[in-house]
């Protein structure tokens, strides 16, 4: 076994060398005010030839593997980041780090296959169909997620201390460390999919909630992406006793920075739909929809905000169904404004959502029918000047046909009555 450890150690160094070399060639200056050097954080995590031992123990090789994985997680995360703390990492290095980790994971399973299988089974995860290049991640999750949680928490605001504001928290521990940990956390979570992630909820959720509770929008955003991935890859029953606390965290974060508003909407919509499916009168649907509408009403002309909401809200609308009638007084005034927006994307999304609402509620005999027809008529004329005039007019015609069908059905119903 010692020879296998030695072989794995040599492989680690072999995989690290091109990454280390690429890092050394990058001209890097830490962002002003960040107080941390991400490059200096990564470099010590990569093993080098000077660390070769005549023999190496299991605990030593495990520590080297964990550190190498930390480095790969952070470098790979830069592919989806525009934040200044990671934007200096070139695309080719991210791809290389991801490829190197997959090779290590497969080699690790060859050496520690039995041990790895035992540890994964202890987590309640069926190892049978987990790809080899993902087994190492699953094994490391119980060890590393608590570390990320504590790192994020270090620069969080102490809510029990009213004078403890963001600047004070960041002065104690630079927020850059929390941002790095949040990106690493998100990378680990998104490496695992359905059905395996469901068995890891008790490890993932506490760290995700800590990220959502942080004052930094960047840290919050990574927590939101992680919970969105969770919502897409677990069953509602997997969330256990965390259901209410997760939804409460979603509601508290709805009035977030515009930079992460699209993450807020997608996360909240998926989680409330996943957990409250079949219960359209759930108070969580009511609270979440009201919080979102209030946020939209504050700046109805905010293009990014309205597009994100229109793009991701469909599952929530479908979950609420006929109960949407109670929200018409707030939804339709926004729709009537947005139908005449300058950008075609907003207009098309509004028309799509109107069709969905019509099909869910039949709009019945509400006072909004006449106004809707008037606004659609005006929009039909305005569409002549739009680049997407064919699509816009096509959507309008479909809505008018639906309204006519419902009017006919309503008349027949009254006649039969």
UniProtKB/TrEMBL annotation:
PANTHER family: OS06G0694100 PROTEIN. This is ARM repeat superfamily protein.
């Amino acid at each position: 076994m010692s020879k296998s450890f030695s072989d794995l150690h040599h492989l680690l160094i072999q995989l690290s060398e091109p990454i280390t070399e690429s890092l050394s060639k990058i001209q890097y200056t830490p962002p002003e005010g960040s107080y941390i050097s991400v490059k200096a954080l990564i470099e010590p995590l990569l093993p080098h030839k000077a660390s070769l031992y005549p023999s190496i123990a299991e605990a030593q090789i495990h520590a080297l593997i964990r550190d190498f994985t930390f480095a790969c997680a952070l470098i790979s995360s830069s592919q989806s980041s525009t934040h200044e703390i990671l934007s200096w990492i070139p695309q080719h290095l991210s791809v290389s780090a991801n490829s190197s980790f997959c090779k290590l994971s497969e080699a690790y399973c060859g050496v520690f296959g039995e041990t790895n299988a035992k540890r994964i089974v202890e987590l309640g995860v069926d190892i049978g169909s987990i790809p080899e290049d993902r087994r190492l991640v699953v094994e490391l999750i119980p060890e590393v997620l608590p570390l990320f949680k504590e790192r994020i928490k270090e620069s969080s605001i102490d809510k029990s201390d009213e004078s403890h504001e963001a600047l004070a928290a960041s002065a104690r521990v630079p927020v850059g460390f929390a941002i790095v940990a949040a990106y690493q956390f998100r990378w680990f979570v998104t490496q695992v999919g359905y059905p395996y992630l469901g068995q890891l909820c008790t490890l993932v959720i506490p760290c995700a909630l800590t990220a959502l509770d942080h004052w930094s929008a960047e840290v919050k955003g990574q927590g939101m992406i992680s919970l969105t991935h969770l919502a897409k890859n677990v069953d509602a029953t997997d969330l256990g006793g965390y259901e209410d606390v997760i939804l409460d965290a979603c509601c508290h974060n709805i009035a977030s920075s515009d930079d992460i508003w699209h993450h807020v909407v997608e996360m909240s919509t998926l989680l409330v739909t996943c957990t409250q499916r079949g219960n359209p009168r759930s108070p969580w649907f009511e609270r979440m929809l009201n919080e979102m509408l209030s946020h939209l009403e504050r700046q109805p002309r905010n293009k990014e905000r309205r597009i994100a909401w229109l793009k991701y809200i469909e599952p929530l609308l479908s979950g609420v169904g006929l109960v949407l009638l109670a929200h018409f007084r707030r939804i339709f005034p926004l729709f009537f404004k947005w139908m005449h927006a300058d950008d075609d994307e907003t207009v098309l999304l509004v028309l799509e959502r109107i069709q969905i609402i019509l099909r869910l509620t039949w709009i019945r005999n509400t006072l909004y029918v006449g106004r809707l027809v008037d606004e659609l008529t005006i929009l039909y004329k305005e569409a002549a000047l739009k680049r997407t005039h064919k699509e816009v007019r096509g959507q309008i015609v479909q809505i008018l046909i639906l309204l006519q069908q419902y009017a006919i059905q309503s008349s027949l119903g009254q006649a039969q009555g």
